[in-house]
């Protein structure tokens, strides 16, 4: 019994739909409701409208010293689970038992104040994360060294570059020494070099025998840091297995729709409005929706969506990712300045945005397609990096005479010339 | 490995939905006392970091108010100041009033301003309004130096009861915290509170004897008047510093009782609402 660090039983969390959009009630609305339904208001059931279970009947256990990965699509309940376990929010039902000091990293740099210096922010942020002052004193030099901002430690962080800021923020978080560490997508920030360093630090933590719960969209990070993972889907735990198997399941069975992803109304978050995705499709040269395309033929990607109202500066984009979660490219339908000028304001209506990935580009293997709808620097209406998976068949691709895997996500047909150079 | 685990004092946290009124859980608050210190320190530091005059603002505000009040109320309108120089009379009240109104406004807004921390990290939420209230004490101490200067200038000798001042300061802070707890929790749900706050402090200013003396209030209404805890605070300050009148014992007692009731009810209400802060703020 005592070798368990976390025990979760039938945990559920219910949110009222539209809360994120309305943000807060106004007194006037509540007064109007109280007038209509005085008894209900006293019991605190103001307007008991539709709700959504972000987590439902989730049960699992984590042994002391175990590093458990949590995977699942956007909106599957991963972040909600971590918020409940790190006591930021209360569960609506069920029960969880946590043995040991919990440190949660749902974000780096929580409470950082731009006017304060790096030194001051280390103390402030450390205290917010639950460190004692003498603990921060003791680790101060180590934190500064890890962050590589020694020279600017007495400069207000508002003068820091975004990279320096992130490094300092992560450095504080990385030196937290709780018995149980709960980590959300914090590694998805910063440049590649920094990510590598963070990942290294995380694997040190994992090897020190600390209990870690680790959420990430980066499958290679999950594979590298965890041995076992749970998979969440629509708020429910659907699988717990060795990480490699869970990732496999998530990447393939989880995307069983053949070359097509359809969004039902209840899958679209309320804050996406007025944008609503309808379908994302992968079509071959004959315009048929397929699960497998050939590397040697052009591939058409089409996005069906509707706008319930006009959007200014809207751009619809696709992401192409490898199964390890690494980006191959991002492209938007208004990348062309002329196109962008033409669709400055997109009126309400039903649309299809279509693009073609040229032939002889992708290597054989399995890829993920993601969808993004945003207005630059205004709002990200919709974002899903894992909408759909499809296969690329290598038949006829350059170099197929050698039956060996080619490294890299692309396999372009390049013009080679070979000359004999005579001296 | 086993040796280590058996040595560790296991801290078991049970998470389950809470119903109804919870306990205050002051033990947890005590564990996070350093965070109260750091947040208070942050508020003070940030407040003066990018201002031209820095800490001088803590003096300028009450001094300028005192000058205006002395000219208009003390001079032109000839408001009674219990035989004291009007400048000292009003400044002695402006000190606790200043710390109170600042604490109340800051505490009322504190949860919404710190929403980014609240949605990301666990800590007892009471830490946030408490540190907002404490942040004003430094201003008070700075402004207090001016009062001593004024008293020397006008040759007012403090009474022997000056040692009771900290009690009245605490009474002002308790009142601000109590009301601030109610307002900050309500502000999470109803952003109307942001608009109510300036009006509330202005209104409260008029029902507190800052520019006038509470001796203007009819004798048999004084205890009702003292239901406003700031009446007890201001009376206490004037009595302890300037003397010249009987101790305002009954009024202070009424004020103190109300302040404590507001504080305790505020804490319970705050704790009850706390569970939904992260989802609503």
Task: Please explain how this structure is put together.
The complex is a heterodimer of chains A (423) and B (281). A 6-stranded mixed beta sheet of chain A has the order 5-6-7-3-8-9, with helices on both faces. A 5-stranded mixed beta sheet of chain A has the order 12-20-19-15-16, with no helix packed on it. Chain A is built from 11 helices and 20 strands. Chain A is 25% helix and 34% strand. Chain A is of the alpha/beta class and 423 residues long. The longest helix of chain A has 16 residues, at 192-207. Residues 19-23 and 40-48 of chain A have low confidence and may be disordered. With 281 residues, chain B is an all-alpha fold. In chain B, 44% of the residues are buried. The model of chain B is unreliable at 1-8 (pLDDT under 50). Strand 4 of chain A pairs antiparallel with strand 1 of chain B.
């Amino acid at each position: 019994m005592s070798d368990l660090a976390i025990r979760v039983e039938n945990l559920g969390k219910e949110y009222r739909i539209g809360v994120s959009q309305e943000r807060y009630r106004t007194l006037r609305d509540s007064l109007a409701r109280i007038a209509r339904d005085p008894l209900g208001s006293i019991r605190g059931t103001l307007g008991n409208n539709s709700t959504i279970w972000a987590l439902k009947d989730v049960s699992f256990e984590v042994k002391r010293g175990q590093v458990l990965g949590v995977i699942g699509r956007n909106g599957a309940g991963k972040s909600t689970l971590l918020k409940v376990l790190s006591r930021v929010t209360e569960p609506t039902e069920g029960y969880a038992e946590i043995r040991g000091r919990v440190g949660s990293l749902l974000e780096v740099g929580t409470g950082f104040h731009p006017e304060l210096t790096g030194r001051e922010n280390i103390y402030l942020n450390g205290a917010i994360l639950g460190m004692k002052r003498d603990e921060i004193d003791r680790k101060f030099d180590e934190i500064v060294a890890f962050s590589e901002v020694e020279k600017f430690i007495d400069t207000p962080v508002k003068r820091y570059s975004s990279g320096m800021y992130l490094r300092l923020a992560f450095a504080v978080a990385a030196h937290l020494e709780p018995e149980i560490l709960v980590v959300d997508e914090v590694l998805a920030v910063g440049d590649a070099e920094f990510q590598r360093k963070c990942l290294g630090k995380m694997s040190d933590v994992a090897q020190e025998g600390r209990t870690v719960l680790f959420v990430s969209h980066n499958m290679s990070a999950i594979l590298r840091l965890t041995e076992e993972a749970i998979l969440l889907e629509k708020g429910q735990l659907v699988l717990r297995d060795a990480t490699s198997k869970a990732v496999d399941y998530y990447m393939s069975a989880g995307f069983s729709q053949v070359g097509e992803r359809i969004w039902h109304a209840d899958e679209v978050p309320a804050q996406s409005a007025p944008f609503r995705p309808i379908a994302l499709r992968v079509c071959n040269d004959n315009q048929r929706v397929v699960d497998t395309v050939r590397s040697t033929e052009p591939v058409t990607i089409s996005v069906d969506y509707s706008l319930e109202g006009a959007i200014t500066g809207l751009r619809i984009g696709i992401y192409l990712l490898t199964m390890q979660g690494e980006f191959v490219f991002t492209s938007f339908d208004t990348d062309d300045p002329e196109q962008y000028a033409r669709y400055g304001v997109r009126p309400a209506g039903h649309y299809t945005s279509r693009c073609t990935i040229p032939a002889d580009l992708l290597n054989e293997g399995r890829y993920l397609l993601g969808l993004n709808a945003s207005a630059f620097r205004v709002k990200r209406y919709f974002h899903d990096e894992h909408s759909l998976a499809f296969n690329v068949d290598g038949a006829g691709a350059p170099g197929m005479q050698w039956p060996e895997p080619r490294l890299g996500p692309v396999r372009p047909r390049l013009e080679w010339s070979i000359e004999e150079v005579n001296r | 490995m086993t040796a280590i685990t058996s040595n560790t004092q296991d801290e078991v946290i049970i998470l389950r939905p809470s119903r109804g009124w919870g306990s205050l859980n002051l033990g947890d608050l005590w564990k996070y006392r350093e965070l109260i210190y750091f947040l208070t320190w942050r508020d003070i530091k940030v407040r003066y970091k990018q201002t031209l005059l820095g800490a001088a603002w803590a003096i300028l505000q009450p001094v300028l108010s005192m000058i205006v009040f002395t000219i208009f109320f003390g001079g032109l309108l000839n408001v009674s100041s219990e035989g004291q120089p009007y400048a000292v009379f009003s400044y002695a009240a402006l000190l606790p009033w200043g710390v109170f109104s600042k604490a109340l406004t800051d505490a009322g807004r504190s949860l919404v301003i710190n929403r980014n921390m609240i949605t990301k990290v666990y800590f007892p939420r009471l830490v946030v309004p408490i540190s907002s209230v404490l942040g004003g004490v430094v201003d008070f101490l700075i402004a207090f130096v001016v009062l001593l200067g004024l008293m020397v200038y006008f040759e007012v000798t403090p009474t022997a009861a000056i040692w009771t001042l900290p009690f009245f300061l605490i009474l002002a802070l308790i009142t601000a915290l109590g009301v601030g707890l109610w307002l900050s929790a309500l502000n999470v749900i109803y952003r109307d509170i942001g608009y109510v706050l300036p009006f509330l402090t202005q209104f409260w200013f008029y029902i507190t004897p800052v520019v006038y003396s509470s001796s203007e209030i009819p004798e048999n209404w004084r205890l009702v008047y003292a239901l406003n805890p700031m009446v007890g605070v201001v009376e206490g300050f004037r009595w302890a510093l300037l003397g010249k009148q009987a101790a305002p014992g009954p009024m202070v007692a009424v004020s103190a009782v109300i302040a404590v009731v507001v504080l305790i009810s505020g804490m319970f209400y705050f704790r009850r609402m706390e569970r939904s802060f992260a989802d609503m703020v």
